[in-house]
């Protein structure tokens, strides 16, 4: 029973990591239909930001608190730069965008290698987050994973509210649903695109901060995760958030259960087979966005 | 249908990434059947040796320290007059953590530079990649890292530990501490899988239960489930053959799950002083390692080695087992050449048996038959200062037995 709950929590926390990474993609890929292969490198940028801050700020706890907003802005700014310099010029040419951002991703990896060295680096976690919460029955829940879960849920809540309630959110939704109609109605679509890209990339930065609590920081840390995150968005259904949230947790629990019953590699196979089967049944993903768009 | 266009392109992207990965794996073979033994060029007043280590890529963190250590030995020998009156001229190549590159560079060092010997390689995958190159050219490789045993090439000298000098003593130590059950965690490649085969054979013969066995891909950072399995198994100890950065994620998760070195110690065979520094002592304090050398190993030879290394590369640089084995390799080669009176590979090989060297780890002796060396096995505990202190040693050097022929329980292994 303890093991069952332990595994359930592990699954949920894998889901939380996936969700944090996928959330930014749900915006840039899901809402704007831009396949940004450099998204993983924005995660890396967030993680290295945490590392740099820890070199200059004493106290692992404070540096983590400071790292969250700073990483968001650093990764977001990188996203905006990428949008202004390259992606904006390629909106009608998705395949070119893909190749260009892939190139950018390789360049950013090399840049990280040149600046920080090719060996991976580590951060010290605050004492509070290295421990665990003991529940009755011998069950323990790791504090760092609880923190990541809380961060993921907070990010989802904030993003949902922003999309629903703020004028910016309304404009983003308008552009997603019908770009031309939004443009003729006076919505500055170019600016909306840039802001969306800032938010999506910034969320990748947040994910990077969270990942420093789990593993090492290295130039290729983003690439290992990006495929899973794309899968979450595709299976969840493009153009809205709730599908991504549900699918991230479902895949996390499926992965953890499969891994517990078999081995890590077999579990990966199980997850991929499940995804293929699911997409055969619902090629449009879990949820679809109803639009009147003709495109 | 703009909603679906994204996905179709994504599929294309994944194919592209997969294709790129496959190209990278494609082997660039350097086999040239017409080539037979290449003789080293020793006509000048210097003798060339090859240094083959990864200076870039995922293995650079470890292999750069080995390169530094080889250079220290070369400098010492040159300062003392060289080998057979000739100064050593080191020629460095970067294996780039890529196994076909290792084979290519080995061929270059042997055929173009005509070096007298090559020092290097770290992972078993890179050793397996260069082995045919050395055998074809009848050239010498000195391999300085502990490995999974079950190998004996006439053209390789193994100066790191084989299994009966590291893993078997590690298990003996656990048994003596009263461990009745172990859990095996390792990276998914040749060394951990072979090592765990040996561990399971040992356990079966020594009344130990193996409660579980899990592998993670190299570079994997998600250990939630594996640690959960380890924890719920209630094993007395964990035997860890993870390599590289996966150790960081594993030990972070281990601590978060509330597991400690006192309740369930982890014995690691790939974590030396340099790696402890990288992972962080906050996660490793009190955990066990199995090696043949630690920076803290007592003795005049080691004090001299540590002092020389720190003087050359910086006071904050620790020394570790593979570095020591690489340093010893160069000195052993010098002794072999001088005993043979020539740089000729076959003469060096037949002169190798019985050669001893007063190494930092204690006196080591070359076994001429297996071309491994007799080494003292040492179990150590990670301290709060990041250094490893010895808690047990085998008392005398253990003779190398790469095929475990003297262990009845290992008869079924191949």
Secondary-structure blueprint:
The complex is a heterodimer of chains A (295) and B (414).
Chain A: H1 2-31, H2 39-56, H3 60-85, H4 94-116, H5 127-130, E1 132-135, E2 139-142, H6 143-165, H7 167-177, H8 179-184, H9 189-211, H10 223-236, H11 242-261, H12 264-281
Chain B: H1 2-25, E1 46-53, H2 60-79, E2 87-94, H3 99-111, E3 118-120, H4 124-137, E4 141-143, E5 156-158, H5 163-176, E6 181-187, H6 190-205, E7 209-216, H7 224-233, E8 237-241, H8 246-256, E9 266-268, H9 273-279, H10 281-284, E10 288-291, H11 300-313, H12 321-340, H13 345-351, E11 356-359, E12 362-366, E13 373-374, E14 378-382, E15 388-393
Parallel strand pairs in B: 1-2, 1-3, 3-4, 4-5, 6-7, 6-8, 8-9, 9-10
Antiparallel strand pairs in B: 10-14, 11-12, 12-13, 14-15
Please supply descriptive tags for the structure shown above.
heterodimer, A: 295 residues, ABC transporter involved in vitamin B12 uptake, BtuC, two-stranded antiparallel sheet, 12 helices, 2 strands, 3% strand, B: Rossmann fold, 2 domains, seven-stranded mixed β-sheet, five-stranded parallel β-sheet, 15 strands, 42% helix, globular, signal (chain B), Urea ABC transporter substrate-binding protein (chain B)
Question: Could you please describe the fold and organization of this structure?
Answer:
The complex is a heterodimer of chains A (295) and B (414). Helices cover 73% and strands 3% of the residues of chain A. Chain A has helices at residues 2-31, 39-56, 60-85, 94-116, 127-130, 143-165, 167-177, 179-184, 189-211, 223-236, 242-261, 264-281; strands at 132-135, 139-142. In chain A, strand 1 and strand 2 form a beta hairpin. Chain A is globular, with a radius of gyration of 19 Å. Mean pLDDT of chain B is 89; it is low at 20-35. A seven-stranded mixed β-sheet of chain B has the order 7-6-8-9-10-14-15, sandwiched between helices. Chain B folds into two domains: 46-161 and 300-374, Rossmann fold (3-Layer(aba) Sandwich); 164-296 and 378-410, Response regulator (Rossmann fold). The chains are: A mainly alpha (295), B alpha/beta (414). Chains A and B meet through helix 1, helix 4, helix 6, helix 10 and helix 11 of A and helix 1, strand 7, helix 7 and helix 8 of B. Chain A: It is a multi-pass membrane protein.
């Amino acid at each position: 029973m303890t093991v069952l709950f332990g595994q359930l929590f592990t699954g949920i926390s894998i889901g939380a990591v996936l969700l944090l990474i996928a959330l930014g993609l749900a915006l840039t890929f899901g809402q704007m239909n831009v396949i940004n292969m450099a998204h993983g490198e924005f995660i890396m940028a967030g993680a290295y930001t945490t590392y740099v801050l820890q070199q200059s700020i004493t106290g692992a706890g404070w540096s983590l608190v400071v790292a969250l907003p700073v990483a968001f802005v650093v990764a977001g700014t990188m996203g905006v730069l990428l949008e202004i310099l390259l992606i904006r010029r390629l909106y009608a040419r998705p395949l070119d965008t893909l190749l260009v951002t892939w190139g950018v991703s390789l360049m950013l990896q090399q840049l990280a290698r040149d600046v920080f060295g090719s060996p991976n680096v580590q951060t010290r976690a605050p004492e509070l987050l290295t421990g665990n919460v003991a529940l009755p029955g011998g069950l323990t829940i790791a504090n760092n994973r609880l923190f990541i879960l809380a961060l993921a849920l907070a990010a989802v809540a904030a993003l949902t509210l922003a999309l629903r309630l703020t004028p910016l959110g309304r404009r983003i939704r308008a552009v997603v649903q019908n770009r031309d109609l939004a443009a003729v109605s006076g919505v500055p679509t170019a600016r909306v695109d840039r802001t969306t890209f800032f938010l999506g990339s910034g969320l990748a930065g947040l994910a990077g901060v969270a990942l420093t609590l789990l593993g090492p920081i290295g130039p290729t840390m983003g690439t290992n995760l990006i495929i899973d995150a794309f899968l979450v968005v595709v299976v969840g259904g493009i153009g809205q958030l709730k599908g991504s949230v549900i699918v991230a947790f479902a895949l996390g629990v499926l992965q953890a259960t499969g891994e517990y019953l078999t081995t890590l590699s077999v579990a990966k196979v199980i997850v991929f087979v499940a995804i293929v089967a699911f997409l055969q049944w619902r090629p449009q993903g879990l949820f679809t966005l109803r639009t009147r768009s003709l495109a | 249908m703009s909603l679906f266009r994204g996905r179709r392109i994504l599929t294309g992207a994944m194919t592209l990434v997969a294709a790129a990965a496959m190209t990278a794996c494609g082997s660039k073979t350097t086999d040239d059947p017409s080539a037979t033994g290449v003789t080293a060029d020793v006509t000048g007043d210097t003798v060339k040796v090859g240094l083959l280590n990864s200076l870039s890529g995922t293995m650079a963190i470890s292999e750069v320290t080995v390169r530094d250590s080889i250079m220290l030995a070369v400098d010492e020998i040159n300062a003392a007059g060289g080998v057979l009156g000739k100064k050593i001229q080191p020629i460095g190549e970067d294996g780039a953590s890529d196994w076909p590159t290792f084979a290519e560079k080995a061929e270059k060092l042997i055929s173009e530079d005509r070096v007298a010997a090559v020092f290097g390689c770290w992972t078993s995958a890179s050793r397996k990649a260069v082995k045919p190159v050395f055998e074809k050219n009848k050239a010498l490789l000195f391999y300085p890292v502990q490995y999974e045993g079950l190998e004996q090439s006439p053209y390789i000298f193994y100066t790191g530990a084989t299994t009966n000098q590291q893993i078997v003593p590690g298990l003996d130590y656990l048994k003596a501490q009263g461990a009745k059950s172990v859990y095996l965690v390792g990276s998914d490649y040749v060394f951990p899988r072979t090592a765990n085969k040996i561990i399971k054979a040992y356990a079966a013969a020594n009344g130990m239960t193996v409660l579980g066995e899990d592998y993670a891909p190299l570079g994997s950072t998600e250990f939630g489930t594996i640690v959960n399995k380890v924890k719920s198994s209630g094993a007395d100890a964990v035997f860890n053959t993870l390599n590289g950065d996966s150790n960081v994620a594993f030990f972070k998760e281990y601590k978060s799950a509330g597991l400690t070195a006192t309740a369930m110690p982890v014995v690691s065979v790939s974590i030396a002083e340099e790696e402890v520094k990288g992972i962080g002592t906050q996660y490793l304090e009190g955990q066990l390692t199995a090696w043949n050398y630690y920076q803290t190993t007592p003795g005049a030879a080691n004090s001299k080695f540590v002092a020389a290394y720190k003087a050359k590369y910086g006071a904050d640089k620790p020394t570790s087992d593979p570095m020591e084995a690489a340093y010893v390799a160069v000195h052993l080669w010098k002794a072999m050449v001088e005993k043979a009176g020539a740089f000729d590979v076959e003469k060096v090989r037949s002169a190798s048996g019985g050669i001893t060297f007063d190494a930092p780890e204690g006196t080591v002796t070359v076994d001429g038959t297996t071309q491994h060396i007799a080494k003292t096995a040492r179990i150590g505990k990670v301290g709060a200062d990041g250094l490893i202190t010895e808690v047990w040693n085998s008392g005398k050097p253990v003779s190398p037995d790469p095929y475990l022929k003297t262990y009845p329980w290992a008869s079924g292994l191949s």
